[in-house]
Amino acid sequence: MWSRQTEDRLAGIGAHSDGVTAAGLHTAATLLVAGCVALRICYALELRSLRSAWIDVDVIWAAVLYRYGDCHIAHITDYRHEHSTTIGLVPMTQAYSVRSAMDPRSGYQCDPKAATDRLIILLVAEERPLLEALESDLARRFGNDCQIICEHAPAEGLATLRALAEQSRPVALLIADQRMPTMTGVDFLVQAHALVPSAKRILLVERDYTQANPSVTAMTLGQIDYHLVKPWVPEQGLYPAVSEFLAAWAASFEPEFKMFRIVGPKQDARSHQIRDFLSRMAISYGFYDKDSEVGRQLLSEAGQDGTRLPMIVRHDGRVFVEPSDADIVEAFGGGTDLGEDVYDVAIIGAGPGGLTAAVYAASEGLRTLVLERHVSGGQAGTSSRIRNFPGFTWGIGGQDFAHRACEQAWLFGTNMVFAREATGLRASDGQHWIRVADGQEVAARAIILAIGVSWRRLGIPRLEELIGAGVFYGAAGSEARAMQGQHVCVVGAGNSAGQAVAHLAKYAASVTVLVRGDTLATSMSEYLITELGQLPNVEIRLGVQIIDGEGDGRLEALTIRNGTSGATERISTSALFVMIGADPHTDWLAGSVERDQQGYILTGTDLLHDGRLPDSWPTDRPPLHLETSLPGVFAIGDVRHGSVKRVASAVGEGANVVEVLHGYLAAQPA
Fold it and tell me: Which one, 40, 154, 511, 590, has least CB within 10 Å?
């Protein structure tokens, strides 16, 4: 494990040199090692904010050396000086001596044996050659910062876990062979989960791509988190997967380095909004009640008396009092400037469809703007894990998906603008103009509307008053860990509700699902229904409706009514997550584009009424695929009439619309 000094330096890198962290380096290097015999590492550092840049290069280099002790690094190039220095073919085993030669002033300490609480990986297999091979391969790559414990029998493995749990040791991964005579791997992992619930569970199975493979059922029932196939190729099948598993385990804990510290009332709607905003942008933060010791200290250091809250303190001491979303975006380096260019395409909305369109448009040479009123991800960004998205074996978190897509679009040249809400749309002289909330306008040759939908409200006054104080619309990822040991309720019957329930059940003592209808089958995927039915702390209540709530400053109880008998019941609860369907964000488009009765945007052939186009259609050609009633304006994703409310569908439309867009732009004057 890293020493405290090392972690501080890595935190400094994260703060000052574009967010580089040990986890990010290890993930990136793992991907490189999987396909290369040697690495070429080049690090260029902008010296505007760092005076002792040699520390950062040294730490970054040591971070990679420390993890990948079985590789060689080719051509480590240091751009810190006027003339770059290249060290060729340096064995990783010489890391510390070479590091000292680079700069003996650093005093850098990296002694893996000095740690007393290394992460633990527990391996259980009764086949000794299998166990020894797995231990050897894992130790070669992860042995410096993980303690690998091997047990030859499931009973001994459970006994070891009991002892580790009593000592509060950090058990990160459990890897169990399915084929054990005394107990199957699935059974072992189910029992082990009760002892160390935070550990990720990995089932080791034979290569068998049939429904008979135990991984299929175990994954669906939530009995395992991942699987590994034997035999394996370490660099391709084992190391990348285990790095991903460790990263997922670490993500469930609060990071030590905090980019922001928030001070505010504990049960405050705006404080909750800021925390959820930062969580969805994957920005580390700490929250402190204004009356806590740390909260009072931060207020005092900032010269604030606590009358104006919430307050945010950035890692470098910069203070924001009652910040807007735009203030927060700028504080963590995001964009809010629309620019003065005339874009080829402006995409309104940064959900899966909008981000995909941005990636394809920008990568194909179009000047691209993405305008998002909140943060990236859309409805999908609130999902804890999207399991049915192609290409992600074990699923992908909505926040993770959004972050990756944003980075990808940005690297292709997209101008990503957050916390700016579109309020108007007009066409003039062959261009389209978008007006934002402050009255500013931006022009583009074409527009893509990917504005998604919003959750429907319960409309119960006492619950509306408690939004952010126990009542949450959507699956607020920032609140899940806070539900530890609590009873929570979820109202909704769709896939997003099911995913939220499965995620909350990992933390809450119990979760009650409240459904107005008499079945889940008409609105929720079968795999999710099966998974929820197997969770012991989840209760599904059909045919009930919330009619009231109560609480003094925060939610304390709900009143529900049985739709058949009319009987009412009071349920004590700490939180309510409302996921009862959605409405499109299209009121601001009234008079600009044709919509259906529910407000969803009509496109393509859906614009036809009795075989005829609307009177407002201004050209002789028919509307293009995904084109709205305003030529050059397209709609994709959930906001489009007749759309399939799935992430993959939105992604597909985001890719397709760019091809249509090229045809439209080619027919327009340059």
Answer: 590
- The H or E element that residue 547 is part of is strand 544-550
Helices (H), 525-642: 526-534
Going 296 to 299 to 300 to 305, the CA torsion angle's sign is: negative
511-545 pLDDT tens trace: 999 999 999 998 899 999 999 999 999 999 999 99
Residues 6+ positions from 227 with CB-CB distance below 8 Å: 202, 203, 204, 205, 215, 218, 219
The length of the chain is: 670
E strand or H helix at 248, and its extent?
helix 239-251
Contacts of 404 (CB under 8 A, 6+ apart): none
Tokens of 537: 């702390």
What does the DSSP assignment read for 615-628?
A: TT--SSSPPPTTB-
Token couple for 589: 């488009």
pLDDT above 50 (res 280): yes
Question: Buried (b) or exposed (e) across 167-202, using 16+ Cβ within 10 A?
Answer: eebbbbbbbbbbebeebbbbbbbbebbebbeebbbb
Is residue 207 within 8 Å of 1, Cβ to Cβ?
no
The residues with which 368 forms a beta bridge, in sequence order, are 345
Task: Copy the structure tokens of residue 625.
Answer: 């695929």
Average pLDDT in the chain: 81
pLDDT in tens, 27-83: 444 444 444 334 444 433 333 333 333 334 444 545 555 455 555 444 444 444 444
Helix (H) or strand (E) holding 296: helix 293-301
Query: What 3-state class would DSSP assign to 293?
Result: helix
Please tell me the predicted confidence (pLDDT) of residue 569: 96
**Which tens digits make up the pLDDT trace of 362-403?**
999 999 999 999 878 776 666 667 777 888 888 787 778 888
* Chain position carrying tokens 């799935």: 646
d(CA 632, CA 616): 14
pTM of the model: 0.67
Q: What is the pLDDT of residue 305?
A: 94
Phi, psi at residue 4, to the nearest 5°? Answer: -60, -40
Q: Which residues contact 43 (CB under 8 A, 6 or more apart)?
A: 57, 60, 61, 77, 78, 79
